[in-house]
Amino acid sequence: MKKNIVFAILVSAGAFLIQHHVPMVQAEEMGPVHSITLPTIPAELKEGAGKDKVMTLCGICHSPDYIPMQPRLPAKTWDSEVHKMIKVFGAPISDEDAKTISSYLAAQYGTDEK
Ligand code: HEC
């Protein structure tokens, strides 16, 4: 008789642990939602006229970091780079915006060459 009572206590204690303790631990370690830490992308461009357009339009497909990653380039090269983005890759940039962007790039990331 005593044995049965002890057994009943152990069983309910075990059931309690399985129901309450184990799932809680699993929820912490194996829940469907995990938090991730995104890498910080330094996408700061130099201040200058047209910066906003460059940040938005040149950041559609890739980080605007592609710009400061380049060596200083002559204005002509920046201009053809902008047109390559439009013609080859289909960047949705108007002629007017392309001009603003090319001038910004030449002024901030250009050489003295024209
Ligand atoms: C429609 C998508 C798109 C837009 C918008 C875009 N690019 Fe690109 N860009 C690309 C692709 C595709 C590459 C080449 C593949 C890669 O390296 O990711 C690239 C590469 C570059 C490179 C690296 C050198 C090269 O020629 O491969 C530079 C610099 C660059 N882009 C500048 C710009 C600038 C400045 C603008 C804004 C005028 C711009 N991009 C807008 C798609 C785009």
List SSEs in N-to-C order: HHHH
Radius of gyration: 30 Å
Discrete helix count:
4
What's the number of extended β-strand segments?
A: 0
- Describe the main β-sheet briefly: none
- The level of helicity is 55-70%
In whole angstroms, the N-to-C terminal distance is 100 Å
CATH class of the largest domain: Mainly Alpha
Structure, explained:
This protein has 114 residues and is an all-alpha fold. It has four helices and no strands. The radius of gyration is 30 Å and the shape is rod-shaped. The chain starts with a helix and ends in a 5-residue tail after the last helix. The chain binds heme C (HEC). Residues 57-58, 60-62, 66-67, 70, 81-82, 85, 89-91, 93, 101 line the site of heme C.
List the keywords.
4 helices; mainly alpha; 114 residues; binds heme C; Cytochrome Bc1 Complex, Chain D, domain 2; 2 domains
Concise structural overview:
By secondary structure, the protein is mainly alpha-helical. 56% of the residues lie in helices and 0% in strands. The mean pLDDT is 83.
Secondary-structure blueprint:
Layout (H helix, E strand, L loop, with lengths): L1 H29 L20 H7 L17 H13 L7 H15 L5
Helix pairs in contact: 3-4
The protein binds heme C (HEC).
The site of heme C has 16 residues, from helix 3.
